[in-house]
Design a protein that fits this description.
The protein has 250 residues and is of the alpha/beta class. It has 2 domains: 9-173, Alpha/beta knot, CATH 3.40.1280; 185-249, Helicase, Ruva Protein, domain 3 (Orthogonal Bundle), CATH 1.10.8. It contains 10 helices and 7 strands. The chain has helices at 19-31, 49-55, 59-63, 71-74, 99-109, 128-131, 151-169, 185-201, 210-223, 228-249, and strands at 9-14, 36-40, 66-68, 80-84, 96-97, 115-119, 136-138. It has a 7-stranded parallel β-sheet with strand order 3-2-1-6-4-7-5. Helix 1 packs parallel to helix 7. The radius of gyration is 19 Å and the shape is elongated.
Length: 250
């Protein structure tokens, strides 16, 4: 995947617990030209002998793995984020995409910046809150009788799909119009936090319902593929509303 203008692919693992899986994923990172491996609160040592044995030429990724305590920190410099899961709480209305559809979207929307592929815990995947930090959520189809995939297998499938999609589509030939960039997960998350505080202040939200209602607002904005400049405008409206409220109360 190391082509001119192609984004830096970052593989993010949330709370990985198996050193053999971790080593296998490091090897895949070397196979497919991944830029960096990031680990969120790992439950195993990346330098475990089993991990290093499985990694082979990918040992560098284990040694250089960047660690974070939260997903929002790990994706703070990523313009595009694709997460994976098997199933979600349908009340949140987060659509699930095939790898082909999600990567087709990526090649049409993304610029030559960091793209994160996020994988959840071996035993329970990603939480709904974590899934909402991604612009697209992928599910990998399997036989319904046994849908659970090994973590390293899921990573391998998506990295291979991304590699093939790049060769087929040709990233360099796609241009995105100025000002039409999709809002990054951090930009959207910052807006949601600003909105939550203001809506609590004016009584639209209550403490015990704020989390679920803001999740639904975030899901709506994700489905609408809100642009970065639109998020900037919405945050400006929030700031003006807060100023007007403070001025009247002073």
């Amino acid at each position: 995947m190391k082509k001119n203008n192609f984004p830096k692919v970052i593989v993010i693992l949330v709370e990985p617990s198996g050193p053999i899986n971790l080593g296998s994923i490091a090897r895949l990172c070397e196979n497919y030209g991944v830029h960096q491996l990031r680990l969120i609160s790992p439950k195993c040592d990346p330098l475990d002998p089993q991990a290093k044995q499985m990694a082979l030429k990918g040992k560098y990724f284990l040694e250089a793995a960047k660690k974070s305590n939260s997903l929002i920190d790990a994706i703070s410099d990523c313009q595009s984020v694709i997460a994976t899961c098997g199933r979600i709480d349908h009340d949140l209305a987060i659509p699930l995409y095939s790898p082909e559809k999600a990567l087709e979207w990526f090649f049409k929307q993304s610029k030559s910046e960091n793209i994160a592929l996020v994988f959840g815990r071996e035993d329970r995947g990603l939480t709904n809150q974590e899934l909402q930090m991604a612009q697209k959520v992928i599910t990998i189809e399997t036989e319904s009788a046994y849908p659970s995939l090994n973590l390293s297998h899921a990573v391998g499938i998506l990295l291979h799909q991304l590699y093939c999609s790049n060769n087929k589509v040709g990233f360099e030939s796609i241009k995105i119009k100025e000002g039409q960039e999709i809002a990054s997960p951090k930009e959207l998350n910052d807006y949601i936090e600003d909105s939550r505080q203001l809506l609590l202040e004016i009584g639209f939200l209550m403490d015990h319902t704020a989390e679920s209602r803001m999740q639904k607002i975030k899901a709506l904005l994700q489905r609408g593929e809100v642009k970065a400049k639109e998020i900037s405008m919405l945050r400006g409206i929030l700031h003006q509303m807060r100023w007007a409220i403070d001025s009247r109360n002073s």
